[in-house]
Every structure is written in C-alpha cells, then in structure tokens.
Design brief:
Order of helices and strands: HHEEEEEHEEE
Helix content: 10-25%
Number of helices: 3
Strand content: 35-45%
Number of strands: 8
Largest sheet: 5 strands, mixed, barrel
Shape: elongated
Length: 166
C-alpha cells in the first residue's frame, strides 16, 4: 500500500512540474531592458568602449565595452541592445545583439564627430573618457568639448577644437 502512495506521489510530481509556466530564453531576453546609448570613445579588435554622461546621478557616467562585429568609428553615437546580460566589471562588458548608429539632425554632424575624435585624441591619457558636452561656438568658430575620465575620477577638461572649412 505504501508503495502505491509513493508511485502516485511521484506521478503527480512529474505531472505538476511538467505544467510549469516557463518562458523561452528569447522571451526572457525581450523582457529584460538591456539597451544602452552613448558615444564610442575607444576601439579595439572585436569591441568598442561606449560611454554616456548622466547629469543628475551619483556616478555621473556609464561605460561599457561592447563586443561587436559591426564596423563603428570613434565619435559615433550609438544605441546598443545586448545579447544576454552585462558583466559588471569596471567598465562593464556585454555582447551586442543589435547596434543602431544615431545620426544628429544638425547639418554639421560630420564636423561635430571630427571635433569629438580630435578631443579624444588629445585625451589619450584618460582610461575611460566620458564626453560631458559638445557645443559649437559660432563667434569663435570652434567646438568646445568637456570631458573627464570615468575610471580615474580626473577633473573635467575643456578642449577647444577649431576645424577648417566649416
């Protein structure tokens, strides 16, 4: 008799567990908000470093190494949807599922990007450069870029870039 109860219990257990409400990996990934937007500030084989300034935050910025095969350039503003989770190292790391390059609606997008590249090149000593602001000063005919190092907590640096043929 005890054997029969045991068999019934085992059968019910498998029946109940087989009716669980599980979701697929794809549905789970779609439910997790794993997107990030920022500026490409460094480029290595198979990955780019993307940083984003957050004005009213304790951390002030976010930085993620994005593993990708998409051809990107320093100065590109991108939006990344990640494939799975993000490793919480410093900077964080994640594999891109989809990348969109965000185009500036301003007519001088090419010059803005060129100014960002020059500012980053002038700040090679920064481990994780974060661009705080990018503004064009018409009066002085130059770009004013403010940036700082996310990793070493350096002071903000202002760089003035004058571009010819603008």
């Amino acid at each position: 008799m005890k054997k029969n109860y045991f068999l019934i219990f085992i059968l019910l257990f498998f029946l109940i567990s087989g009716c669980s409400n599980s979701i697929s990996d794809e549905e789970r990934d779609d439910n997790i908000n794993t997107t990030f937007s920022g500026v490409v500030v460094k480029k290595e084989v198979g990955r780019v470093l993307v940083t984003n300034y957050i004005g009213n935050s304790e951390n002030k910025s976010e930085a993620i190494w994005v593993k990708t095969t998409t051809e990107l350039e320093i100065g590109d503003t991108i939006s990344v949807k990640f494939d799975g989770g993000i490793e919480t190292s410093n900077p964080a790391q994640g594999k891109a599922k989809k990348i969109d390059v965000i185009h500036d609606k301003e007519q001088n997008e090419r010059f803005k990007k060129e100014a960002i590249v020059k500012a980053i090149n002038e700040s090679k000593y920064m481990d994780v450069p974060v661009i705080k602001t990018v503004e064009y000063n018409k009066k002085d005919n130059q770009w004013v870029i403010k940036l700082f190092d996310n990793k070493n907590g350096s002071e903000e640096k202002e760089i003035n870039i004058e571009l010819k043929n603008q």
